[in-house]
Amino acid sequence: MTHGLPKVEATPKPVETGFEGISLYPGFLGEAAQASLVAELTAALKAEKPYRPLMPRTGKPWSIHQMNFGDRGWISRPDGYAYSSTNPVNGRKWPAIPAALLALWQHVADHPAPPECCLVNLYDTPKSRMGLHRDEDEEALDAPVVSLSLGDTCVFRVGGFARGDKSRSFRLASGDVLVIGGPSRLRYHGVDRVIFGSSRLVPGGGRINLTLRRVTKPA
Ligand code: MD3
Ligand code: FE
Fold first, then answer.
1. Of ligand 1's atoms, which has the minimum distance to the CA of residue 123?
2. Whose CA is nearest to atom 15 of ligand 1?
3. Do the bridges between strand 189-194 and strand 207-213 make them parallel or antiparallel, or are there none, so unpaired?
4. pLDDT, tens only, 133-148
5. What b/e readout covers 123-140, taking b as 16+ CB neighbours within 10 angstroms?
6. For ligand 1, atom 12, which residue shows the shortest CA distance?
7. pLDDT single digits (tens) 54-107
8. Which residues sit with Cβ closer than 5 angstroms to ligand 2, an ion?
């Protein structure tokens, strides 16, 4: 067990979210696995500094920091959203997706191809949030999105398929894994707020979200 994930027989059952295709695994990662992943991420983010992305059109900075692992990184710039194999800040290829996260995808994604993007969202101030949006820049919309939460709990919102549809919020705590696929893959979603100081896992406080996505259709 080098990847720090629970044994397969210890994998918890998902709880009902009320949305077909959205499965929540509360506490999928135990405290030891969370701590070892945070240590690995802290080291990686020292070499690859997270940056504040800019909103399309307005060029306004986001309230969070981001970076990517994997062959395809998701970026937000004044000219739009895109997938890029290189970091726009330093021009270099993104580092490889950590083995523990590839293993997480294998456990829960029920998809034959590996993820190509691991977007790291750092909710590092009490004002950090993410507005309602859809993940729609991927060619492989048949693949699910797998999300892991670390650190402070957040209030997460899921809506419908149009921006104004009714929505519901629920909390995501440290170690929780969310798998979004099937008929819910294109639902609107966002992060209303982070309950700052609710966890002591992340040095300096805040919340780390790791979102794994398949971007291209396998050849
Ligand atoms: C529900 N990140 O990076 S991940 C994103 O917590 C993003 O940082 C959020 O949305 C975060 O794009 C949420 C969980 C997630 C991802 C995709 C979804 C939930 C979803 C797609 C449809 C419905
Ligand atoms: Fe999203």
1. 8
2. 147
3. unpaired
4. 999 999 999 999 999 9
5. bbeeebbbebeebebbeb
6. 135
7. 999 999 999 999 999 999 999 999 999 999 999 999 999 999 999 999 999 999
8. 135
